[in-house]
Amino acid sequence: MSLREGFTTGSAATAAAMAAFGRLLGLEFPAAVDCPLPPFAETPGEPPTAAGRLNIPLAAVTLSDGRATAAVIKDGGDDPDATHRARIEAEAELLAPADAAPGGGEILVPGFPLLLLRGGPGVGRVTLPGLPVAVGEPAINPVPRRQIQAGLREVAALRGYKGGVRVTLSVPDGENIARRTLNPRLGITGGISILGTHGTVRPYSHDAWKASILEGLSVARAVNCPRVFLSTGRRSERLLQNIFPLDREQAFIQVADFAEFSLRSAVDAGFRDIVWGCFFGKLVKLAQGLGHTHAHAAPLEMERLARWCAEAAAGDARGLESAIASCTTAGQALDLLLHRPDADALLRAPALRAKRVVESFAPGARIELFLLSMNDDTGRELIRL
User: Fold this and answer.
1) Both ends of the chain: CA-CA distance in Å?
2) In this model, does residue 332 exceed pLDDT 80?
3) Of 14, 98, 345, 361, which shows the fewest CB atoms inside 10 Å?
4) Is 71 exposed, middle or buried (0-12, 13-18, 19+ CB in 10 A)?
């Protein structure tokens, strides 16, 4: 079964801005907006060419006192995130060219039409360096800025409009939504970010995860974290934070299954001291040499784990190897190992192999590897190498 694509907050903001601007110019968008999608190809002397287009439904368009407001309900498709079903609003106000000078908190987007862009309630503001948006500006990323201007350029051309426009983006429940995102950790306060490099949301997109990893590393470097703590999810991250309570929150980055990508990216970002924390299943997959550890792409090889443990066992290991080989999950194998008196030696067998693999993904860095206990929320490690 094919999965349904959605659209980004950047595309939602663009469609809303186009509808509001168009209403001011006497145009009607009764049901939907034909929205241009990034990236935009540049040809000297010609308007940028969009990579594609998407028909985005409108939730509302109103006009009052020389200002128009339009709203779009953001749709994440079959890959819903925290912003799925968020209401993205754009208020547009026409400006004479002489008035198109940025005031406090406004962004002047270069090009035509003259565009002043504001972040209203529910749109975050950047407070830490390291992001593609300057400190103090609303969290509207560079690609959505260009996408909004490209859409407004199309609307202006329909009416021959040569002036300027001020657009204020708002997300009524944005501050609450942002609490379920990484924005607070990245120093984005007061709301969500307006994002999107392609305009659409691909279900279970690897690109989105990788982008969040790179963003986290950039902020960690910008705020001078001496080391980074990479973990596969929220629970393993919380355990690392319990073990290292004095390190800054920005140093902890969830990298999901992207082991090789995140480690190489950490080195590229300049980090030479890296902590890796994971549970037993991910550790065994790393020991197998896998750079991506998702269950669909990286099955556990119980026979290899059984052989490693048998080689490390103290005394007769005939029953141990067959018992591990017959396990169906990593948790089942771990429980079996933890009940043996030589558990530490048995766990070190795959852990040492995993560490060598992790080190190969991060040449030149010092790696500290933690095998964490899923049955202990206080931050206890089973193995530390």
Assistant:
1) 43
2) yes
3) 98
4) buried
CA neighbours closer than 13 Å in the CB half-sphere of residue 255: 28
Domain ranges of the chain: 6-201, 207-384
Partner residues linked to 61 by β-bridges: 70
H/E stretch holding 253 reads: strand 252-254
Class of the 6-201 domain?
alpha beta
Q: What is the pTM of this model?
A: 0.77
Cβ distance 261 to 210 under 8 Å? Answer: yes
Measure Cα distances from 96 to 93, 101, 106 in Å.
Answer: 10, 10, 16
Residue 175, both tokens: 């501050």
CA-CA distance, 75 to 57, in Å (whole number)?
10
264/196 Cα distance (integer angstroms): 24
Based on the number of CB atoms within 10 Å of its own CB, is 57 exposed (0-12), middle (13-18) or buried (19 or more)?
exposed
Three-class secondary structure of residue 172 per DSSP: coil
Q: How many residues does the chain have?
A: 385
CA 126 – CA 136 distance, rounded (Å): 5
CB 298 within 8 A of CB 290: yes
Residues in Cβ contact with 204 at an 8 Å cutoff, skipping those fewer than 6 apart: 3, 79
Q: Which two tokens stand for residue 54?
A: 């998407």
Q: Interior CA angle at 230 toward 281 and 190, to 5°?
A: 120
Tell me the pLDDT band of 204, cut-offs 50, 70 and 90.
low
- Residue 275 half-sphere exposure, CB side, CA atoms within 13 Å? 24
